[in-house]
Amino acid sequence: MEHKGKVLSGLDVLLAEQLDLLEGLGVGIVTNHAAVTRDLDHITDALHAAGVNIVALFGPEHGVRGDAAEGAAVEDSVDPRLGVPVYSLYGSTSMPTQEMLQGIDVMLIDIQDVGARFYTFPYTMAAAMEACGKFGVKVWVLDRPNPISGLGFEGPLLDLEYKSGVGKYPIPVRHGFTSGELATLYNTFFGVECDLHVVRMKNWSRDMWFDDTGLPWVLPSPNMPTLDTATVYTGTCFFEGTNVSEGRGLSRPFEIFGAPWIDAQGLRKEMMSYNLPGVAYREAYFSPFDWKFRKEACSGLQVYVTDRDAFKPVITGITAVSVIKRLWPDDFMFRPPSSAGRSFFDLLAGSSAVREMIQADVDPMEIEKTWQNDPVEFQERTKSVLLY
Q1: What whole-number distance in Å separates Cα of residue 386 and Cα of residue 388?
Q2: Which entry of 97, 281, 336, 373 is 20 to 30 Å from 246 by CA?
Q3: Which distant-in-sequence residues (6+ apart) come within 8 Å of 290 by Cβ?
Q4: Does the predicted model carry a pTM greater than 0.85?
Q5: Backbone dihedral region for residue 193 (phi beyond 0: left; psi -120 to 50: alpha; all else: beta)
Q6: Where do the domains of the chain lie?
Q7: Do the Cβ atoms of 169 and 36 come closer than 8 Å?
Q8: Residue 276: helix, strand or coil by DSSP?
């Protein structure tokens, strides 16, 4: 396979330079379908072929093979190719038990993140790190790029009162860390405390987007099909906390949003009036084949990023939610609170403050001012974890 770029993932570096360090050790792997080499060999196949003693596999949301639906509990199983147990960390348990870790000397973690605080995979990594620290298992994180570059930090920090499966630590909505840097952050600042080794990438720099790396894109989860999706996700995912479709059930999820009662022309005109950087909008008319408004005619917008380095996804998404609420107040709704009284929008935003300001029709630019210093101060505070 021709390689257009020169970046080597942590997995590629491990295979080329560090395999001898695993000789004679029992190895567990927390991973999914996106953990492939530059030649698209899956981590389990590549390591098995290299003679590594794989004891067990551990899967995040969607499972080790990526075949489970969003939010669906995944059951334990046996890997048909390797004949080893596959433990689900997205089901009845989110953290490996001592029994699951039997025979494992080193836990490899290789999961592609997308740079969003509310993506669930980094919390699976954190839970595995915590368990391994508790039971004396070493952790090696095989690093991968932040696909939306290592320079973007945007949005409010999580208030710990709003900890959940879509946000566990006080970091911005859009973070600029790689997986290995997140692991280092957890260990250094958030008390995870495991014996951590990051197998660093080679030739990656913070200004790189995924398509600059030459690495093959494998959709990290079923509704993250392209880099375009990841680019807008930290903004349009907020629609998951509302009764507006975030585009699930379409071929371009998160890039398209809307509802049956939205006037696309009016919405586009209003969104354009904000002159947000690096973004344009197309009127979109669609009928989702699943999820919200299944087979109903909807109208809304498709987001087009015209300058991805200038684009600010979080405020773009919050502005869209705010405008729709203001223009269609009788139709728009935030999702009702859970049985525990928690608003899913609040869990995504990291507190109730953003929702409350939207409900009070506070101008989105004023909402942004309430958090604009948070990412700057956070970056300064945590710069010691940067590996590149």
Answers
A1: 6
A2: 373
A3: 248, 249
A4: yes
A5: left
A6: 10-219, 227-375
A7: no
A8: coil
The CATH classification number of 10-219 equals: 3.40.50.12170
**What is the helix (H) or strand (E) element at residue 110, kind and residue range?**
strand 106-110
One fold for 10-219 and 227-375: no
Rg of the chain on CA atoms, in Å: 21
* CATH no., domain 227-375: 3.90.1150.140
pLDDT single digits (tens) 15-31: 999 999 999 999 999 99
Question: Which of 70, 61, 65 has the alpha carbon at shortest distance from 89?
Answer: 61
CB atoms within 10 A of CB 118: 23
Nearest CA to 56 out of 121, 105, 124 is that of 105
Cα(43)–Cα(120) distance, rounded to whole angstroms? 20
- Residues present in the chain in total: 388
- Per residue in 213-270, pLDDT (tens digit) is 999 999 999 999 999 999 999 999 999 999 999 999 999 999 999 999 999 999 999 9
